[in-house]
Amino acid sequence: MDTRNIGLRNIEVADTKICSIDGENGKLIYRGYDILDLANHSTYEETAYLLLFGDLPLKDELSLFNNKLIEYRTIPDSIIKNMKNKPLNAHPMDILQSSVLELADYDSNRSNEGKESNITRAISLISKIPTIVAAWDRVRKGMDTVEPLKENNHAHNFLYMLNGEHPKHEVSKIFDISLILHAEHSFNASTFAAREIASTRASIYACIGGAIGALSGELHGGANIQVMKMLLEINDIDNVEKWIKKRIESGGRVMGMGHAVYRTTDPRAEVLAQLSKAISKEKDTKWYEITEKVEQVTKNIMFETRQIRIYPNVDLYSASLYYSLGIPLDLNTPIFAISRIAGWNAHIIEEKFAEAAPKPALYRPKAVYVGRYCGPMGCEYTNLMNRTAKINQ
């Protein structure tokens, strides 16, 4: 029996001061602060500061941080011009990844790899990623891009750049809370990718580019898109039970249910459910009610048929939330990146500039070779003209 822990599940690879997850009790902690407290009382800007610097900011510190975020929102005109030369059906995550890597070319201080320089880059990336996402959505629709605001918060500014009009305060507040909830989640696939790249001493741009690539997969950041596709297929609350029963009986997954870490409800899902309910009421949509029924039916069927308790994860209600906000389906994952950039940056800086032992080291896991083996001297090379058959794989 193979007892190895496939996929590095539960393998401790590094120390971190940034995030703690208690999967048994459904707790998520940013720098010592419960995610539910931050969602109820904080803002995305304050949360990003906490993740980057380790403490909640004082009033003057937050004001300075906010001013820097506003100052760095604009992206080079040439990046917009390059977008206009891209195929209009290009995926937003591919555009985001290439644009972030392109930003390195405009960093006049690129050769300085000190901590302060990297923190400046981190703040700039937090500011610029929303601008890139909003700009591409408008470019591909044949619309003029919208210049970022010189005021207003992160959430408000993105919705303004995306839609070309100021959002209602209630809507921008809901979006702000969703950004807080997605800002950090320990050593998930994209964060680990960022840290692994940082361990090679590559630039922060390369690290974020790699993280975006990891996030794009449907088993990670693309999962809420799969949830929304499921909801669209169900379409009506009266279809939920039949659809879920058929999916489970056929051995398929109900997207948005279950988590690799949490053994109870994902604490982020609790808040997102409330936000989805509020925005569904505001926009008069049916998606919250269908999502809630999906959760209830899946729980009941899984327990009745398999004696398994299953709970919603962060993707279940974020899908209906973003869709009800009128956000295009394929922007769900880029919006995840708009939020998670804060956590990625914090981990990259921690990886590059750890102050305590053990010092950062190049990640180099070990693999078990299970391929072809022809004996102690290896396989004998046969000239192409003399090959008559392939060796069994």
Characterise the protein shown here.
With 393 residues, this protein is mainly α. It has two domains: 6-222 and 329-352, Citrate Synthase, domain 1 (Orthogonal Bundle), CATH 1.10.580.10; 223-323, Cytochrome P450-Terp, domain 2 (Cytochrome p450-Terp, domain 2). It has 16 helices and three strands. It has a three-stranded antiparallel β-sheet with strand order 1-2-3. Strand 1 (19-22) and strand 2 form a beta hairpin. Helix 5 (92-103) packs antiparallel against helix 6 and helix 8 packs across helix 16. The chain is globular.
> What is the H level of CATH, i.e. the homologous superfamily of the largest domain?
Citrate Synthase, domain 1
Tally of discrete structural domains: 2
CATH architecture of the largest domain: Orthogonal Bundle
In terms of per-residue confidence, which ranges show pLDDT below 50 for 5 or more consecutive residues? none
Morphology call: globular
**Gyration radius from CA atoms, angstroms:** 23 Å
First-to-last CA distance:
22 Å
Give the integer mean of the pLDDT values.
93
Strand count: 3
- Secondary-structure element series: EEEHHHHHHHHHHHHHHHH
Beta percentage is under 5%
SS-derived structural category = mainly alpha
Instruction: Report the biggest beta sheet as strand number plus sense, adding barrel if it closes.
Output: 3 strands, antiparallel
Helices, by number, come to: 16
Can you tell me the CATH topology of the largest domain?
Citrate Synthase, domain 1
What is the CATH class of the largest domain? Mainly Alpha
The largest beta-sheet arranges its strands as 1-2-3
The helix fraction, in percent, is 40-55%
